[in-house]
């Protein structure tokens, strides 16, 4: 959920990651018998107080959260013992859906991750099942970071890329998908989402996009990639992934976009 590129990088925790967490604090969600949903709630509430816009766009965040929660619940129920969250931000699923003997690896920019770790430590709950991989995805080695964090390529993994890909350039996304494919067994699964732009029907569409992009530019977390129909599937296919399930969210009239949520498995050799 958090990423910076070098021209706009700021040495501070991600604004957008905090905003996502503050919205998620208010949602009704499933949990896990081994997890601690209250700890996750406290993590999010600690981020929500200073954001006056925390309650905006709740419906979109609910749809997005439900998709990734369901992917997590299904993977753990199938016996997956390894979860990697790429661009984790303040994601609290490792607390809520801890699982029995499941290893969680969180990948994110060092500035956001350091703040997140401090906040999790303040919760005073067990976290030995969580490993952290600080890495700038645009410029540093994801493969090495995952290896150092203890990821086992020979074991099935749930790989989550939520709210991340629009902040990466296409060449970085290509590398990301390729690294995850190389480190995946045939039983691994990738859960990802894309913001898909539709053709503008009137000037209001372009204005809406400009407003949102302007806000992101101000906070130093601008979008780096545009996805039109078919682009997400091509990127995944080129890196060796096959989409096995997808969901298209409702059209957003403000900026003429819709969300694309996918589950993908490694393609057969």
Describe this protein's structure:
The protein is an alpha/beta fold and 269 residues long. The protein has a single domain, classed as 3-Layer(aba) Sandwich (Rossmann fold), CATH 3.40.50. It has nine helices and seven strands. It has a seven-stranded mixed sheet with strand order 3-2-1-4-5-7-6, with helices on both faces. Strand 2, helix 5 and strand 3 form a beta-alpha-beta unit. Helix 1 packs across helix 2. The N terminus is likely disordered.
The span between the termini is 31 Å
CATH C-level class: Alpha Beta
How many DSSP-defined strands? 7
CATH architecture: 3-Layer(aba) Sandwich
Q: Which class best fits the helix and strand makeup?
A: alpha/beta
Proportion of residues in extended strands: 15-25%
- CATH names the topology as Rossmann fold
| Uncertain residue ranges | 1-9
Mean pLDDT metric: 86
What gross morphology would you assign?
Answer: globular
CATH superfamily membership:
Vaccinia Virus protein VP39
Instruction: Tell me the domain tally.
Output: 1
Keywords:
single chain, 269 residues, alpha/beta, Rossmann fold, seven-stranded mixed beta sheet, 9 helices, 7 strands, disordered N terminus
């Amino acid at each position: 959920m958090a990423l910076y590129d070098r021209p706009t990088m700021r040495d501070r925790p991600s604004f957008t990651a905090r905003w996502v967490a503050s919205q998620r604090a208010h949602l009704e969600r499933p949990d896990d018998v081994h997890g601690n949903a209250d700890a996750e709630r406290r993590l999010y509430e600690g981020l929500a107080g200073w954001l006056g816009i925390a309650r905006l766009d709740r419906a979109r965040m609910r749809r997005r959260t439900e998709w990734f929660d369901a992917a997590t619940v299904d993977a753990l129920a199938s016996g997956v013992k390894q979860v990697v969250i790429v661009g984790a931000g303040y994601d609290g699923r490792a607390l809520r859906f801890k699982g029995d003997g499941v290893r969680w690896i969180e990948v994110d920019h060092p500035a956001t991750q350091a703040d997140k770790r401090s906040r999790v430590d303040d919760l005073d709950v067990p976290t030995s099942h969580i490993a952290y991989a600080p890495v700038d995805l645009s410029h540093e080695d994801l493969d090495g970071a995952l290896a150092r964090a203890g990821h086992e390529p020979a074991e099935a993994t749930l790989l989550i890329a939520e709210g991340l890909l629009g902040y990466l350039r296409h060449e970085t996304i290509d590398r990301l998908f390729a690294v995850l494919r190389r480190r995946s067994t045939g039983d691994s699964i990738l859960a990802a989402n894309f913001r898909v732009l539709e053709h503008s029907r009137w000037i209001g569409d372009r204005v809406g996009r400009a407003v949102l992009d302007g806000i992101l530019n101000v906070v130093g977390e601008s979008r780096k990639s545009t996805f039109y129909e078919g682009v997400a599937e091509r990127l995944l296919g080129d890196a060796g992934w096959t989409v096995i399930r997808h969901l298209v969210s409702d059209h957003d009239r403000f900026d003429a976009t819709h969300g694309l949520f996918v589950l993908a498995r490694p393609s057969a050799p």
